[in-house]
User: Fold these one by one.
Assistant:
Number 1:
Amino acid sequence: MGAHLVRRYVTETDTEPDPAKKFEFDPQFGFAERKEREMIATQEQMNLAQLPVEQRDYCAHYLLKLMKCKRDNWPNFLACKHERHDWDYCEHQDYVMRMKEYERERRLQLRKKRIEAQAQAA
Amino acid sequence: MAGVGFRRWAQALSKGKGSGISALLSGCRAASGLSKDSLPGPYPKTPEERAAAAKKYNMRVEDYEPYPDNGEGFGDYPKLPDRSQQERDPWYQWDHPDLRRNWGEPMHWDFDMYIRNRVDTSPSPVSWSTMCKQLFGFIGFMLFMFYVGEKFPAYQPVVSTHLNARILFSLFFCWCFFLTVTIFSSFKMAGSSFF
């Protein structure tokens, strides 16, 4: 799991992307069509639920459903398995998407470097 | 008349060498206290005075050493080695086992500091320099590693959520040539699994 860290700090320091910085490639590049992600839970709903900032992501609507389910079924703490699974699955998909974004950025950086090397060699 | 008596009484009090209530009433010392010759006295100047002082403190003349006479007010009180009671033999049958002291033994000037509950001069298992090196070496190493951690942070190979929050939605079948490793499904972003 540390391969990206070795790449970033040791072997490929110029191409490995830094997740703290903004990515430089156009999000539409290489895609036929791509929609922007949308929040389904509204600001007002999240404020009413008093969600902390870290939990206000694209899966917040599942989290709100889960919170409602837990509130309604208390003290049965085993009740909301389905809702929890939904939220977990959404978070998992989100994580995988983010991984893919990172990998996309990395491959585009490598490609850019290859093109520059070719241009120099020529 | 009463005024004169009162004045005499106050004078006797101010001169008072006495102990306790008896001093207030009669202006002289009770017989139950120490006699004047067993109390500490002035710095011994002649060898006879030194011998008398040693005898007073139950010490041998060759062991007796008063504090230097430089105005600090120790008088003839003996200067004993600055060792705490903790260093004394724990197995010997002391008269006062808790204090590790025998009756009549000369008391250190700072005896109340050197009792076993307080200051301890017993030697440490390792020398002071070794202790310093180990402690500060460890602290220095930890600080250095924290600094390295700040310079080269470890992160998951994912885009951070709140920076690139406007990530575009990807249709899954465009990416199906990527291998999505199922290991990563067990790692959640910090904050997403509070329960």
Number 2:
Amino acid sequence: MIGGLFIYNHKGEVLISRVYRDDIGRNAVDAFRVNVIHARQQVRSPVTNIARTSFFHVKRSNIWLAAVTKQNVNAAMVFEFLYKMCDVMASYFGKISEENIKNNFVLIYELLDEILDFGYPQNSETGALKTFITQQGIKGQFQTKEEQSQITSQVTGQIGWRREGIKYRRNELFLDVLESVNLLMSPQGQVLSAHVSGRVVMKSYLSGMPECKFGMNDKIVIDKAGKGGVTNEAGKSTSGKQSIAIDDCTFNQCVRLSKFDSERSISFIPPDGDYELMRYRTTKDIILPFRVIPLVREVGRTKLEVKVVIKSNFKPSLLAQKIEVRIPTPLNTSGVQVICMKGKAKYKASENAIVWKIKRMAGMKESQISAEIELLPTNDKKKWARPPISMNFEVPFAPSGLKVRYLKVFESKLNYSDHDVVKWVRYIGRSGIYETRC
Amino acid sequence: MEWANQLCENRQFGSKMTDSKYFTTTKKGEIFELKAELNSDKKEKKKEAVKKVIASMTVGKDVSALFPDVVNCMQTDNLELKKLVYLYLMNYAKSQPDMAIMAVNTFVKDCEDANPLIRALAVRTMGCIRVDKITEYLCEPLRKCLKDEDPYVRKTAAVCVAKLHDINAQLVEDQGFLDTLKDLISDSNPMVVANAVAALSEIAESHPNSNLLDLNPQSINKLLTALNECTEWGQIFILDCLANYTPRDDRESQSICERVTPRLSHANSAVVLSAVKVLMKFMEMLPKDLDYYGTLLKKLAPPLVTLLSAEPELQYVALRNINLIVQKRPEILKHEMKVFFVKYNDPIYVKLEKLDIMIRLASQANIAQVLAELKEYATEVDVDFVRKAVRAIGRCAIKVEQSAERCVSTLLDLIQTKVNYVVQEAIVVIKDIFRKYPNKYESVIATLCENLDSLDEPEARAAMIWIVGEYAERIDNADELLESFLEGFHDESTQVQLQLLTAIVKLFLKKPTETQELVQQVLSLATQDSDNPDLRDRGYIYWRLLSTDPVAAKEVVLAEKPLISEETDLIEPTLLEELICHIGTLASVYHKPPSAFVEGSRGVMHKRLPARTGSGESTESPDVGTAAGGSAPEAAPSIIPSQGDLLGDLLNLDMAPPTTTGPPPPNTGMQMGGMDLLGGGLDSLLGGDIGGSPAMGAGFGAAPAVMPASLNAPVGGGLGDLFDLGGGVGMPMGAYIPPKTVWLPAMKAKGLEISGTFARRAGVIQMELILTNKAMSVMTDFAIQFNRNSFGLAPAGPLQVLTPLGPNQTIEVSLPLSTVGPVMKMDPLNNLQVAVKNNIDVFYFSCQYPISMLFVEDGKMERQVFLATWKDIPNDNESQFQIKDCHLNSDAASSKLQGSNIFTIAKRTVEGQDMLYMSIKLSNGIWVLAELRVQAGNPNYTISLKCRAPEVSQCVFQCYEAVLKN
């Protein structure tokens, strides 16, 4: 299991060091600094073995988190834990920075004591942790016996993510379908790979211990219902696009996985506040909101002509926002002249790219940019690698075609019904890695 | 500025307390001040002081001197302060064991506290205090906590047992904690179960033969129930533990799989990977025709793909595991090629791993896409990545035959870029392509040769040299090319030296006339001027081979090479099985068994996949290895061993097969094997001939009596002898073989070109022919016939051209000849008229053979007989000739001649002039006697020949000249 956990600043100075196992000595702290942080070469692997000791590291801004072990640990678990540790710290004190870590080092030690025991990760749900570890010190000495046992049963219990006795005057639910659409397109416009990775993010302000059920236009469910007969008629007529094929999905630990496996229904007792209910991935019938058509011409050895057309491909009534097209330029660029039909375009020498920004663009439109790039003559034999043209945008629909069919709330003990809950649903599609080769 | 900073700091101090200030104190006398503060009456001040101590501890300062003062702060009801003191204790207790005892009371008391959080804190901390004296005091509190009413305390106590076991295993067993721990597996609280499972698994690892985990269907059922209820981490502990279980039969295996599959949808990648591990392992037991087996295979793909949308570090872990899974069960991901396409912004470690998997998944169906991607990658920036991409193109060519042509042209395009490392990498892979598809893509050799000068890496140089040597007959200036490498022979790496040696020997065997000097040069460089034993040994072996039996040398050095296998880089099957049992863990990331990187007893136990058994046989986890080791994977592809076949290696199969990432085979055993092989091989290779063999070069003849004995002696002696021998005479040679000449030009024979020569190898006369089809159509049905000739030469068998000869194809055949055919005197005497037939026509040509090939091996005359015969032959039959410009001394000449069965019977030295008396016997029984006069310093030899059939003298003289001058 994890033998120790260290946090370093960008210089390699130790900010936090917690050793859990006897086989990890103090020299491990230095070994990582010397071999990884101060290494001359770029880091070639997130797992490093130095003298039979393995180091796992992740970086957040310029802070290094390293877990160290001498055993054959579950590597996936170690990384998951490191991410979790970052989440927990972020939820306590915001950004993970040297300043924040130094300011909260006592708190971090307390957390590390609680969520990692002898190198075994323990309950690390912030909801539960915050009931007894706070930035103002540890609650505990002034609590009543009931409160104490409530804490311990929550930390160890089946529903470790939610405490009892939550009350809201107004029961509200916010549901966001956030999708990032990824594309790799050949210069000729052939889709080399495309997928949507989506998340269903919820904010729930519900009283008591509600039981929720979430439904979407999952092809398997719809098809199954179709065989059943009557029920689907209504369902089909309301949802415009019928159903989507979900390649795979993963769920927050509050979702009953065995129930999903057998009935494909998503039921859960939600955590209080913000959480991510599920993630999913689709690859079929994706709506690609934009098409990028590049044209790069080399005029002699010192000039490039670039023309890029973008076309929006969705309902004209919808508006895409925050559109940004990034056209890479060679390293020996000396000057750039740009003309664009819409928005603003600028050559950013420090980023070796022309950045073209458009605030808004409606569906079924097209726009164009052309640029002349002057090059310095070089005797560098190596050809310019022509990185792909990438694009960023935000659209108010789900490119996968996912639709929320229902989100039902049942709380049998308290007297509010599904109808009393105010529900908000929003769809946002963003670009993930949206690239066209040129 | 200074004061401003200070002011700021002071203000900060006053208004808002920030803990970062603890990191800045570096004053002198700090310890002293801290001591005072720790002993302060004020609670706040005490707490501040402890914080400072912890901060100092963190940055690595030694604050152990404060031990008693800090421990004094332990007795407090402030939980935060208590935790800080505990943190300090855990760090320094070991260095201050006597003082640490002071803490025991507090622990014991805290374990009885009303607050479960405090009880748990105490039991958690005391397990971390590794002081023998203390541990004994802790047994009672621990026992109580293991049975505590609060699950939070129990789950902490469960882990504490593992801690205690790490300090004092005997104590834990004596106190019966292991049984209590086992009971906790049935606890009502899922987290207690999970921690108990984790603790037991760890303890069981250090007792491989104990039956600690005692997994049986009942306990498995409990674990599976807890699996649905506990935290994500607990699920990992339980799944990892389940993976050690071996179900009794396929039914149980299926029912466990069914209950584990829902975990594949968990958001935590580690849960998913651990579930994959259990499924991959238990699947082994399911019959393949079972519907469920197929369902399970289908269910595995999506979650594996989903892992690729995790954070990059986890992607890396996932990819390393997918690499294993793809090798074990390629069917799972065969349709998912696209998700492994490299994204421009992927970290380099993700890119490299994806590339690996792309090659593994490449098939005829997706090769076009893969190639297009690889070509794209070959223009990226990262050198390692580009190299790997180029290499991948070569691997695709080898794997998917239909794509080979496209791959080769892609590689040629890349070579045109002239980017140095791209060119070198491309040449290395083209060499492999040549080996996989012989006689197909050699047309590109010219392009390769153009880049000779830019190669500066050993692997690329060696590959290029191999290509030149292998295709020496098609490269006009092969000798020049190789010679150019020879100049800096000693600066080359071993790899290149060995290759150069082999290549030149190959060249020599193919073009013996022009390259004799070159081969002598390289042999002496390798054997005399090199310190490298491998190089020297190989040099000697070639030397001996060439001198003893050039025919055998040809057979050995130019032997047909086995094809290289399609799949490269495969992990050896038993290791793969073990790694599959370690999915998700470090072993699967390193692709090494845990014993390779874990110290001590932990993890040394080798895990194996269960066998596909019916039922009845029950094997528990620890001894699965012995019980079920036999489950061989279906149709394991054969891999060229990386360094296994030493003999093969010596004999020019040495082109390192495409690199393997697998672990090298155990070294010691290998080398031992090598020694044996060398010894035995030499004996059988050379021993037979050495015992006074007439074919033996005279250079070795110096000590013929000693040699057989020493060679039969143990290896060491034999080798030593080898070295001795090398020092002496120049180049021991085999029978003289004239260079091949064109006998039948293509123009005269409707596109069939025949060139050839004659040779005598091991007593058999051979006609060596090269048939080239320069016509547009395929040629078949070859046959050969001789006209009657002076010595009755006739083919001893049919012309062995078994496969049709395609356009532009070339074939080498050797035709054994006999001397029992019809005789007719020809003019010149050694003229031979030949008819060759094929499906097109019959063609005639004539050629002349060197008479030396008719000299038989038993042509050494007794001295007395020689004298008598010499006198007996009339002087009219004597003819004298002059051989001009021959710079050999008499010994060297004698040894050369002996290679062609011209035997020196006696030597006389008269007034600085060596007189050599020699005898020759022709295949038809005619004896020729000769007297060779060699004057030191005079390059002109005089030779007198006496023979009863004086007609042959002219021919014999020509032979002398040819042999001595070549």
